[in-house]
Amino acid sequence: MEVNHALIDKLSLLARLDIKPTEKEKLRTDLQQMIGFIEKLQELDTTGIEPLMHLTEEINVLRADEVKGSVSIEEALQNAQLKKDRFFMVPKVIKK
Fold first, then answer.
1. Whole-angstrom Cα distance, residue 11 to residue 4?
2. pLDDT tens across 26-48, in order?
3. Which H or E run contains 7?
């Protein structure tokens, strides 16, 4: 596949990118190299090779939850500018 300035113009229009004329040649070269790499990969014989869904066999490896120290409600609220009972009060940010 040949990458030319018309293709770059079409792609930039579809992607809503403003590509300067000075950048077009560099972009054309980069795209041509990427397409060449993909074409080279297509030459590989992959018969008998199962497609990969994940790179490893491990699924949802999660760490165990650990209860760690925390501050009391009184300690958390001691420097609050505005508070009511055991809650922080913040300025309203959503207007109707």
1. 11
2. 999 999 999 999 999 999 998 99
3. helix 5-15
Write the pLDDT tens digit of every residue in 55-83. Answer: 888 778 788 888 888 899 999 999 999 99
Using the structure block, give the residue that is written with the tokens 């949802």: 60
Rounded to the nearest 10°, the torsion over CA 44, 49, 54, 59 is -160
User: 81-91 pLDDT, tens per residue?
Assistant: 999 999 999 98
Cα Rg of the chain (Å, integer): 28
Our separate counts of H helices and E strands in the chain read: 3, 2
88 forms beta bridges with 83
